[in-house]
């Protein structure tokens, strides 16, 4: 499913049973978002994480503020959203704000923030990455796996 050079997580080797993980998901582009959320849940289950909180926000622009709040009392956050390019520069501003904001949350909190924000030119690109039947990639799964793997790595320091 993943492209050349992609990291393949070995989630079954992790013990995520002691982790509290929050998933924050935007609500635009429902079909794609359903795939991303399902992929994230699957990764967390494979890693043995049973304490999972799902928070929905309106759009991807709202992901960082929710992630900031959730990072305060969770071991890791998984941020999921889909932004699809339109005819105005709005796409660039939402993508930039969400990306910068989520990076800032991770550094300010010291907690991993899985980056599951799809930034796509069209809907087909998003569907191809949503972990749905016929998708080539599962970015919700990948983002959750990265968050849990990083939380595990940090807990060993
Ligand atoms: C306004 C907007 C637009 C045009 N497109 C998207 C999108 O493709 N994906 C997404 O997650 N959110 C979009 N939004 C909503 C903004 O993220 C935000 O929710 C609103 O500007 C309100 O703050």
Automatic annotation (TrEMBL):
Binding site for (2S)-2-hydroxy-3-oxobutyl phosphate: 87-88, 129
Family matches, as SUPFAM superfamilies: Lumazine synthase (SSF52121)
GO biological process terms, semicolon-separated: riboflavin biosynthetic process
Binding residues for 5-amino-6-(D-ribitylamino)uracil: 28, 60-62, 82-84, 115
InterPro entries for the chain: LS (IPR034964), LS/RS (IPR002180), LS/RS_sf (IPR036467)
Catalytic activity entry: (2S)-2-hydroxy-3-oxobutyl phosphate + 5-amino-6-(D-ribitylamino)uracil = 6,7-dimethyl-8-(1-D-ribityl)lumazine + phosphate + 2 H2O + H(+)
A Gene Ontology term for the protein's cellular component: riboflavin synthase complex
A single MF term (Gene Ontology): 6,7-dimethyl-8-ribityllumazine synthase activity
Protein family: Belongs to the DMRL synthase family.
Function: Catalyzes the formation of 6,7-dimethyl-8-ribityllumazine by condensation of 5-amino-6-(D-ribitylamino)uracil with 3,4-dihydroxy-2-butanone 4-phosphate. This is the penultimate step in the biosynthesis of riboflavin.
Protein name: 6,7-dimethyl-8-ribityllumazine synthase
Gene field: ribH
């Amino acid at each position: 499913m993943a492209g050349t050079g992609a990291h393949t997580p070995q989630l079954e080797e992790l013990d995520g049973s002691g982790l509290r993980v929050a998933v924050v998901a935007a609500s635009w582009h429902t079909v794609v978002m359903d795939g991303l959320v399902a992929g994230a849940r699957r990764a967390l289950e494979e890693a043995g994480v049973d304490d999972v909180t799902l928070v929905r926000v309106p759009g991807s622009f709202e992901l960082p503020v929710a992630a900031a709040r959730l990072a305060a009392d969770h071991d890791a956050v998984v941020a999921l959203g889909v932004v699809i390019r339109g005819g105005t520069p709005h796409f660039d501003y939402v993508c930039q704000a969400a990306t910068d904001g989520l990076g800032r949350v991770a550094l300010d909190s010291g907690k991993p923030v899985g980056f599951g924000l799809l930034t796509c030119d069209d809907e087909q690109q998003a569907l191809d990455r949503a972990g749905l039947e016929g998708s080539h990639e599962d970015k919700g799964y990948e983002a959750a796996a990265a968050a849990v793997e990083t939380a595990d790595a940090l807990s060993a320091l």
